[in-house]
Amino acid sequence: MSLPTQATIQSFDRIKLPLSFDVEKLRSEFMSLQLQPFEYYDVQSLRAPAHMVDTSLPFPPPADDYADGSWTDWLDTPILKKSPYLMSIIDGFKAHTTVTLVRLLRLAPGAIVKEHTDPTLALEVEKSVIRLTIPIFVDDQVTFYLNGTPVAMLPGECWYLKLSDPHKITNHSPNERVNLTIDMIPNDWVKQLINKNLY
């Protein structure tokens, strides 16, 4: 199978990957974390810059380019280390490519994330990372819009989204929305994975 060309990649803003994860395990492990109540938006880091996880480490020196994550080492956080199923998912990607930032993103009931772009989060952006999204808690009253149209992501699915394009989120549900997001360097293995579901 050939790798996607830049022109082919640019014609797709959303790609459901041929991966799926156990929804009950994801939800059970998330609930076991007993995270604190929050307002509007909450971020829980599962993998982060090394000096933020281990504060005895020095702050990395300034870099010319921060987009691809090479400016620092990355470490798993205590939250991830006590979450074996989440750890197994991350380790699965780490076996094939460099995984940088990993987070649990929580959006409160009734909250809206205004339309914005993340200029470096796209496969065709040179020397950058991509972000994969795995919904954990989401229902039909939560809508993720990309380029003005909804992306129908279901719990346990894994999606590549071209986040350098305009996107926004509305949560009209009485429940919080929770996504697992995994940033990684898009090497040949990642591109091959994405290419499997281009058409």
Provide a quick synopsis of the model.
With 199 residues, this protein is an alpha+beta fold. 21% of the residues lie in helices and 34% in strands.
The tally of beta strands, per DSSP, is 11
Number of domains: 1
Order of helices and strands: HEHEHEHHEEEEEEEEH
Give the CATH class. Mainly Beta
**Mind telling me the C-alpha Rg?**
17 Å
In DSSP terms (H or I, runs of 4 or more residues), the helix count works out at: 6
DSSP helix fraction: 10-25%
Between the first and last Cα atoms, what is the distance in angstroms? 13 Å
Strand order of the largest sheet: 1-9-6-11-4-2-3
State the major sheet: 7 strands, antiparallel
Q: Determine the strand fraction and express it as a percent band.
A: 25-35%
The appropriate CATH architecture is: Sandwich
CATH H level: which superfamily? B-lactam Antibiotic, Isopenicillin N Synthase, Chain
| Global outline | globular
Summing up helix and strand content along with how strands pair, one would put the structural category as: alpha+beta
CATH fold topology: Jelly Rolls
**Regions with pLDDT < 50 over 5+ consecutive residues?**
none
Mean of residue pLDDT values: 92
